[in-house]
């Protein structure tokens, strides 16, 4: 496994190649799950009946009027489920509920010949509800004691002592909003039943094996009777890790019951109102600093908004707690986590998976406390960095801590931060109505699933008699370039040209028991497995070559191996070594390594409205030895903008009133929920991958890249805070809502100017 | 052939028979002719394109916000030339494609022979998941073929490339993966079209004419009448008919609210609605001119519109949406209405009994309601001349491009010798309809145009309308930004005022 390969300048790994499907993407030929339906005669279309209440009991459900609608074929209800009526991994997500737990939850599904007939059929279904009291906001849940799942505590040192003897103690509340994934492709599953009774599902899923498991238990069948395939997804970002299962199960159930292919494809509105999002967090904290601004102690209670069911809320909270330190040494720590149960969609994985919410706490604390300590935020951050040999609050040594400083200094010098800070001061001194600021923030992010068992992967590599190569692996492609990297690894390991290698769609009947393509680990895990398979084949071919005097060209070598009855295909397997994690004690070494990065962002804020622009961003990010630099660059940039969207623009609003639409998602369309467009791209944007960053023990010395750079966007939020503060006198601590929309920044500016800020619109730090 | 046999559009009187042509409605897609017979009048062009196997264009939002459905249409550019216009195919009824030419991502190139736009997008990492990419490619290709695009060394604030590519052309396309930098680089790397490029050659001949047509589908018909009077007659006989021009509003209702209609009347092509006329006292703009056409043709004449139009929705929408349609929908927010209020515009209504002229300030009567009669159409918008010397438009939104305003304020001041002789202020987002802020206007008129005057009038403007708390903004914020709008205008326009003085 991970056999070291000789360094070669011309090897395919490390080349900046375009995405393997780029030519298909740009010509509209790349097929996504929904596109496949247009090639299927007899396809039935499913439409959900969505409940108009946040919490209610279904007292009557009469599908018969729907059956009278022309084109309607069947209505699927709880009575149709042959196996278990549950779509979750925790047994708390009934597929056809008798108690509605959030506004928009589906109570049954209508199958029809056309999408239009299915829609009209769903309108015709008669459902009666008894409305119950609903918990909508995180604050209401905390007040009511509405929690679910475990309440982990992460502790080190003596927090009380640290707080008692510190020069400075501050306390406050930090909140961060959720985030809608808004993958451009909404959820889609198409199910078919073959002649042997096997259910074949094509699904936009990041976790085909779990989709398979759940479909099997809903159908009451063995896992081997269900096959799940994913060609590619139009974006995932974590939103297709747990959420596809129920939709796949509906399609599968429909196909089994009607004998026809069934498509479940959500409209944008359905997707937004029915699927989980990033968890919003509420954190109450106390922090202690010494006179020089060194962090001495942190006590915090993080409460996440889990929505109606557990889903992935527990591991999300674990990761949040494990990232509350970000890149900073905090000797005494006690952080508690708890998961609120609210009548909302079940919040789920989203790029960063709790990491961003945890790290936001310490970055918010440093940003708000710096003026109170009289230390500029740049220095305050820098003097608290981890040093080599120090360990995290959960006991893992922070290996390569010096890379934080390396990235930091690299950014400060290449972005010319010192000179630009003077320019900013000059600008602010001469402008009346706008202010600029530069903030620099670091990222340290642990790579591996906290849940150790998930850190394994499989692959299947075939070499055919003509020398062509087919690669299967357990990871899914959602745009992150995983397949491109796998092709590069296979071509390099077998030492063949890239065009001899083809990648087959991800299928559970090729590679079983896979982990979700998540936690940024897709390339680490599946790359390890592909490499393992290729190395096995390579070793066998080496033996064949040894019997020949002259070196055989690839095709001849393969032909010779076949003739000599040498196995030309191999199953590869990889598991990440050296991990251990005690989830009860919240101690151990859950991560294979840490990814590091630093960003410097310059922003400009308009004092009239709080509107803002990101003028320039410079990033240095550690991806180890990049497997595929063009792909990695794209991941860093894309994550940054997505993170900036979360922190400055994207604004999920639920109806919190006590009126009839209580609990309804008010921002349930693209016109009300705005994600970054061209206008939010940093005007100057320079990303550099850290050089000489080889990571021992990872595939080709590379590091994960999917999630860590999202948190580089804290630099934008901190710059906005500083720019708002620059409207006021020195030393004013500025709280900033997350997301820092123009309105939120406006109130921060008003606060800095000593103006009148309506209650609830501006957070304050208590000294 | 007659309109469909049953339903609300059911009739067989002779006039309709006479109007209908005997031609099968056809559309050319990627050079291949398809017929549209059997298409319902509400079926989106996107769904129809996908149903014939062209699944490159995607549904990302179904309301014209994301651009994943973008396709190119050949549009008339004067009498003898053509332009490629990218539009949201999710909002356009498929039947409205009758007689038109469509190019999709599949038609631009193939994996073996990429179009220059496709090549740049592919090699620069412009696609990640690829779902938004076909739409981006179409929007980008339309700009690639823009006749007046020319390389330039001028600095346009970073939003126009050295190749003359105007980045705003792709601002109606959302990408959730890339962060846009590689897409921008792809756009700026494009050269000019080759001389033998078929789509470039197409620009040099007349665009497709929009001939009268009837498209019958299972549940209704789409009719493109021959002229305005015929449109009015149809509306009179079919009170439930839906009238569309660009269909950017009705298309959203179709997709998101299940709106359907037995008869849809397309008026976007009517010559009576597409003229621009001028005399000493007025500029009259035909109601069916698209916002993109106004942007190209009139914006320089009317600085306020030059400010507003680039901020109005996206270029994909502006290629379809019309000035008349925007007023007819009566949105309380629509950015155009506040601007036209500030310009003192009138609405010219045309009905069976002739035409009448209504001041825009008294046109709106309530939430999405107006004085327009059921059988009247907006024929034109009339703007009095001369225009105010000092104008400004402030749009408050979460996102800079393509967002709905939480508050929009348009101001037009006639300043003589430093004194405000006439002030007109239009405001959106503070009431059930766009409003004239007459109190604030009064507090400006007769005063010298100074920061103090602006600040004092701002305090009056703060109280206009009845702003609410909603997902876009709090009422407190809306009032706060109203209060600063005039000071902001004064700060930005100080030099203009100096010159006038």
TrEMBL record, chain A:
Q: Which InterPro entries match?
A: Ald_Oxase/Xan_DH_a/b, Ald_Oxase/Xan_DH_a/b_sf, Ald_Oxase/xanthine_DH-like, AldOxase/xan_DH_MoCoBD1, AldOxase/xan_DH_MoCoBD2, AldOxase/xan_DH_Mopterin-bd_sf, Xanthine_DH_Mopterin-bd_su
Question: Which SMART domains did the record assign?
Answer: Ald_Xan_dh_C
User: Could you tell me which residue ranges the Aldehyde oxidase/xanthine dehydrogenase a/b hammerhead domain spans?
Assistant: 27-133
Q: What is this protein called?
A: Xanthine dehydrogenase molybdopterin binding subunit
| Originating species | Ornithinibacter aureus
TrEMBL record, chain B:
Domain of life where this protein originates: Bacteria
- What name is this protein filed under? FAD binding domain-containing protein
Q: Which PANTHER family match?
A: XANTHINE DEHYDROGENASE SUBUNIT C-RELATED
Q: What is one Pfam family matched by this protein?
A: Fer2_2
Which SUPFAM superfamilies has this protein been placed in? 2Fe-2S ferredoxin-like, CO dehydrogenase flavoprotein C-terminal domain-like, CO dehydrogenase ISP C-domain like, FAD-binding/transporter-associated domain-like
Keywords, A to Z, come to: FAD, Flavoprotein, Iron, Metal-binding, Oxidoreductase
Identify the species of origin.
Ornithinibacter aureus
Domain FAD-binding PCMH-type, chain residue ranges per copy:
215-388
């Amino acid at each position: 496994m991970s056999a070291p390969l000789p360094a070669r300048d011309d090897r395919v790994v490390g080349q900046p190649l375009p995405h393997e499907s780029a030519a298909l993407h740009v010509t509209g030929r790349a097929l996504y799950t929904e596109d496949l339906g247009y090639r299927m005669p007899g396809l039935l279309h499913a439409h959900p009946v969505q409940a108009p209440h946040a919490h209610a009991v279904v007292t009557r459900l009469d599908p018969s009027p729907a059956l009278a609608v022309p084109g309607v074929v069947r209505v699927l209800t709880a009575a149709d489920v042959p196996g278990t009526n549950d779509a979750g991994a925790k047994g708390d997500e009934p597929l056809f509920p008798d108690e509605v737990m959030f506004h928009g939850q589906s109570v049954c599904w209508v199958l029809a010949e056309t999408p239009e007939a299915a829609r009209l059929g769903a309108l015709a279904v008669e459902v009666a509800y008894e409305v119950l009291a609903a918990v909508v906001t995180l604050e209401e849940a905390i007040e009511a004691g509405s929690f679910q799942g475990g309440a982990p505590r992460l502790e080190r040192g003596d927090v009380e002592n640290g707080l008692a003897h510190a020069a400075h103690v501050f306390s406050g509340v930090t909140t961060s909003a959720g985030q809608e994934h808004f993958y451009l492709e909404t959820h889609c599953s198409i199910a078919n039943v073959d002649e042997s009774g096997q259910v074949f599902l094509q699904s936009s899923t990041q976790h085909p094996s779990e989709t398979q498991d759940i479909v099997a238990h809903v159908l009451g069948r063995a896992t081997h009777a269900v096959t799940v395939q994913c060609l590619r997804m139009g974006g995932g970002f974590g939103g297709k890790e747990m959420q596809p299962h129920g939709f796949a199960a509906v399609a599968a159930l429909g196909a089994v019951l009607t004998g026809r292919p069934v498509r479940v494809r959500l409209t944008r509105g359905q997707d937004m109102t029915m699927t989980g999002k990033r968890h919003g967090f509420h954190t109450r904290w106390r922090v202690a600093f010494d006179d020089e601004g060194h962090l001495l102690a942190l006590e915090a209670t993080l409460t996440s908004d889990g929505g109606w069911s557990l889903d992935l809320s527990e591991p999300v909270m674990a990761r949040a707690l494990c990232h509350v330190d970000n890149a900073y040494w905090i000797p005494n720590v006690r952080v508690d986590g708890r998961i609120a149960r609210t009548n909302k969609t079940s919040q789920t994985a989203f790029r960063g998976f709790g990491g961003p919410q945890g790290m936001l706490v310490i970055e918010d604390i440093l940003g708000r406390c710096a003026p109170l300590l009289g230390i500029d935020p740049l220095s305050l951050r820098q003097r608290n960095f981890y040093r080599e040999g120090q360990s995290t609050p959960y006991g893992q040594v922070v290996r390569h801590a010096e890379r934080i400083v390396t990235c930091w200094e690299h950014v400060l010098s290449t972005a010319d931060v010192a000179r630009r800070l003077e320019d900013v001061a000059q600008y602010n001194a001469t402008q009346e109505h706008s202010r600029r600021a530069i903030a620099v923030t670091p990222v340290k992010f642990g790579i591996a699933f906290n849940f150790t068992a998930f850190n394994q992967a499989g692959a299947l590599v075939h070499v055919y008699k003509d020398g062509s190569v087919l690669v299967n692996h357990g990871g899914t492609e959602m745009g992150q370039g995983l397949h491109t990297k796998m092709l590069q690894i296979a071509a390099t390991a077998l030492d063949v040209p890239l065009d001899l290698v083809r990648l087959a769609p991800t299928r559970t009947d090729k590679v079983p028991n896979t982990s979700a393509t998540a936690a940024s680990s897709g390339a680490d895990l599946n790359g390890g497995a592909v490499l393992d398979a290729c190395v096995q084949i390579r070793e066998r071919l080496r033996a064949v070559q040894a019997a020949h005097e002259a070196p055989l060209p690839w095709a001849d070598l393969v032909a010779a191996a076949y003739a000599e009855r040498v196995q030309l295909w191999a199953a590869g397997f990889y598991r990440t070594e050296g991990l251990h994690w005690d989830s009860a004690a919240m101690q151990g070494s859950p991560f294979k390594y840490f990814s590091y990065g630093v960003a410097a962002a310059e922003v400009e804020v308009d004092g009239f409205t709080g509107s803002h622009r990101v003028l320039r961003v410079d990033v240095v990010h550690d991806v180890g030895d990049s497997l595929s630099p063009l792909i990695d660059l794209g991941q860093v940039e894309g994550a940054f903008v997505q993170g900036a969207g979360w922190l400055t623009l994207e604004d999920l609003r639920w109806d919190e009133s006590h009126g009839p639409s209580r609990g309804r998602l008010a921002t349930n369309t693209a016109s009300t929920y705005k994600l970054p467009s061209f206008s939010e791209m940093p005007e100057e944007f320079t990303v550099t991958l850290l050089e000489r960053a080889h990571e021992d023990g990872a595939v080709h010395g590379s590091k994960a890249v999917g999630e860590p750079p999202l948190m580089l966007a804290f630099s934008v939020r901190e710059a906005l805070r500083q720019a708002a503060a620059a409207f006021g006198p020195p030393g004013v601590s500025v709280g900033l809502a997350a997301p820092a929309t123009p309105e939120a920044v406006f109130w921060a500016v008003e606060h800095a100017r000593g103006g009148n800020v309506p209650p609830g619109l501006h957070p304050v730090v208590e000294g | 052939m007659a309109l469909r046999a049953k339903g609300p559009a059911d009739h067989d009187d002779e006039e309709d028979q006479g109007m209908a042509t005997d031609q099968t409605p056809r559309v050319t897609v990627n050079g291949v002719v398809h017929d549209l017979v059997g298409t319902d009048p509400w079926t989106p062009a996107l769904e129809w394109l996908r149903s014939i196997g062209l699944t490159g264009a995607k549904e990302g939002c179904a309301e014209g916000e994301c651009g994943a459905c973008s396709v190119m249409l050949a549009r008339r550019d004067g009498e003898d030339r053509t332009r490629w216009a990218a539009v949201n195919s999710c909002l356009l009824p498929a039947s409205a494609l009758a007689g038109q030419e469509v190019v999709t991502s599949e038609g631009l190139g193939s994996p073996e022979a990429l179009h220059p736009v496709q090549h740049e997008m592919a090699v620069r990492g412009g696609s990640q998941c690829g779902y938004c990419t076909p739409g981006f490619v179409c929007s980008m290709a339309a700009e690639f073929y823009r006749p007046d695009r020319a390389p330039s060394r001028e600095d346009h604030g970073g939003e126009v490339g050295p190749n003359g590519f105007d980045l705003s052309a792709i601002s109606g396309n959302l990408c959730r993966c890339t962060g846009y930098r590689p897409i921008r680089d792809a756009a700026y790397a494009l050269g000019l079209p080759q001389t033998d490029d078929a789509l470039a050659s197409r620009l040099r001949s007349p665009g497709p004419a929009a001939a009268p047509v009837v498209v019958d589908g299972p549940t209704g018909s789409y009719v493109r009448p021959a002229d305005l009077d015929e449109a009015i007659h149809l509306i009179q006989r079919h009170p439930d008919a839906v009238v569309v021009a660009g269909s950017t509003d009705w298309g959203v209702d179709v997709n998101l609210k299940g709106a359907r209609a037995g008869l849809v009347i397309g008026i976007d092509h009517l010559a009576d609605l597409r003229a621009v006329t001028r005399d000493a006292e007025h500029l009259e703009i035909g109601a069916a001119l698209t916002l993109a056409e106004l942007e190209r043709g009139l914006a320089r004449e009317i600085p306020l519109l030059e400010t507003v139009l680039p901020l109005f929705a996206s270029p994909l929408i502006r290629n379809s949406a019309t000035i008349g349609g925007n007023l007819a929908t009566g949105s309380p927010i629509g950015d155009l209405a506040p601007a036209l209020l500030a310009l003192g515009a009138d609405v010219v209504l045309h009905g069976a009994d002739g035409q009448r002229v209504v001041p825009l300030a008294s046109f709106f009567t309530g939430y999405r309601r107006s004085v327009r009669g059921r059988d009247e159409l907006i024929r034109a918008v009339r703007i009095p001349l001369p225009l105010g010397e000092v104008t400004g438009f402030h749009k408050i939104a979460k996102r800079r491009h393509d967002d709905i305003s939480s508050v929009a304020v348009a101001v037009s001041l006639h300043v003589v010798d430093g004194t405000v002789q006439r002030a007109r202020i239009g405001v959106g987002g503070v009431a059930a309809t766009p409003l004239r802020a007459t109190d604030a206007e009064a507090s400006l008129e007769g005063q010298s145009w100074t920061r103090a005057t602006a600040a004092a009038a701002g305090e009056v403007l703060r109280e206009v309308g009845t702003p609410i708390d909603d997902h876009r903004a709090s009422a407190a914020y809306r009032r706060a930004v109203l209060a600063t709008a005039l000071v902001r205008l004064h700060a930005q326009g100080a030099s203009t005022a100096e010159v006038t003085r």
